């Protein structure tokens, strides 16, 4: 029986309520209370637990029809401890440098720079060194790293704000490049956020998004143990649903590709062991980073060159 305290929602892409269940943990999160789920919110557990994922019958999005509401999410994220098993800084920097390379290949790096959830600012630093951005707009809820983010901007004008869902401080039509890395699949209302970002972009400005790919080979190999099946992801994307989502939000020129992530060999071995329930603290492998395409996708899209009305049937137009 579903706990009444959780949010019931239609498909966040198309609004349909017609779904088919596709993935669930042995014990379903929606059968527990908020207090019962707190121990599973962060950290690694032998027992995998998440809200059941359903496939929207209209647009194909994989999402949680039952999920935490905004207030519950604010409380849970606020109590989340730092991740002590983070990938090394060298590997993270190499991964995010590769992301910026893809965005830089799209055209001029000018106007404003906007990033939602920049963490310690690896991509911010690349943008400051290699671009000609006039102002950095950085939206990061972790106030402890705000000074680090300002430093990453390399002396350029920078505004760092502790919110994720209100971009009103950014002048409309001023941003040349907007970035979201592993943020979109955490949002309850992704369309509203993408529309906000589009309003801030210059005509023809670029949006870069990195998400998990629920259609990846890794997902099918790992089954319910695939790490993105977790309490933090109310929806998961594939190339088709990314195209449809960005079409609905009014973007043009959408391109989706598999992304390269860099990981230390020893980290990969530990994560593989933990995924099958074996806790291993050390493995006889070096920490040398290797680049792999392990189930993430990078999406690039552009704001229209001029304002245009949304297609009366955006889902057909995106097909």
Per-chain topology:
Layout: E1 7-8, E2 19-23, H1 34-37, E3 53-56, E4 62-63, E5 66-67, H2 70-78, H3 89-104, E6 110-116, H4 122-130, E7 132-139, H5 146-152, E8 158-161, E9 175-181, H6 190-200, E10 201-212, H7 217-222, E11 235-236, H8 239-248, E12 252-258, E13 261-264, H9 265-275, E14 289-292, E15 296-302, H10 314-318
Parallel strand pairs: 6-7, 6-9, 7-8, 9-10
Antiparallel strand pairs: 1-5, 2-3, 3-4, 4-11, 10-15, 12-15, 13-14
Helix pairs in contact: 3-4
Would you give an account of this structure?
This protein has helices spanning 34-37, 70-78, 89-104, 122-130, 146-152, 190-200, 217-222, 239-248, 265-275, 314-318, and strands at 7-8, 19-23, 53-56, 62-63, 66-67, 110-116, 132-139, 158-161, 175-181, 201-212, 235-236, 252-258, 261-264, 289-292, 296-302. The protein has a seven-stranded mixed β-sheet, with helices on both faces. The protein folds into two domains: 7-78, no CATH class; 89-318, Vaccinia Virus protein VP39 (Rossmann fold, 3-Layer(aba) Sandwich), CATH 3.40.50.150. The chain is of the alpha/beta class and 319 residues long. Helices cover 28% and strands 24% of the residues. The protein is globular, with a radius of gyration of 19 Å. Residues 82-86 and 308-312 have low confidence and may be disordered. The chain is built from ten helices and 15 strands.
State the gist of this model.
This protein is of the alpha/beta class.
């Amino acid at each position: 029986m579903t706990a009444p305290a959780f949010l019931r929602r239609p498909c966040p892409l198309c609004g349909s309520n017609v779904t088919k269940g596709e993935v669930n943990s042995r014990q379903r999160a929606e059968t527990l209370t908020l207090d019962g789920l707190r121990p599973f919110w962060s950290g690694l557990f032998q027992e995998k637990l998440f809200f059941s994922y359903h496939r929207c019958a209209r647009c194909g999005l994989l999402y949680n029809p039952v999920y935490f509401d905004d207030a519950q999410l604010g409380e849970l994220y606020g109590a989340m401890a730092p991740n002590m098993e983070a990938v090394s800084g060298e590997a993270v920097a190499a991964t995010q440098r590769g992301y910026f390379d893809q965005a830089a290949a799209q055209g001029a790096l000018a106007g404003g720079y906007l990033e939602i959830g920049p963490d310690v600012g690896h991509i911010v630093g690349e943008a400051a060194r290699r671009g000609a951005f006039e102002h950095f707009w950085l939206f990061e809820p972790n106030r402890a790293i705000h000074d680090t983010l300002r430093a990453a901007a390399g002396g350029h004008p920078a505004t760092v704000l502790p919110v994720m869902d209100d971009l009103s401080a950014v002048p409309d039509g001023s941003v040349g490049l907007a970035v979201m890395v592993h943020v979109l699949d955490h949002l309850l209302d992704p369309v509203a956020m993408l529309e906000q970002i589009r309003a801030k972009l210059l005509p023809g400005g670029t949006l870069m998004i990195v998400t998990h790919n629920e259609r990846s080979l890794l997902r099918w190999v790992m089954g319910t143990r695939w790490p993105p099946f977790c309490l933090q992801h109310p929806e998961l994307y594939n190339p088709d649903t990314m195209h449809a989502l960005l079409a609905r939000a009014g973007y043009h020129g959408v391109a989706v590709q598999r992304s390269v992530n860099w990981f230390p060999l020893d980290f990969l071995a530990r994560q593989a062991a933990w995924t099958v329930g074996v806790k291993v603290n050390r493995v006889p492998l070096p920490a040398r980073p290797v680049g792999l395409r392990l189930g993430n996708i990078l999406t690039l899209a552009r704001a229209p060159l001029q304002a245009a009305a949304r297609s009366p049937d955006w889902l057909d137009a995106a097909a």
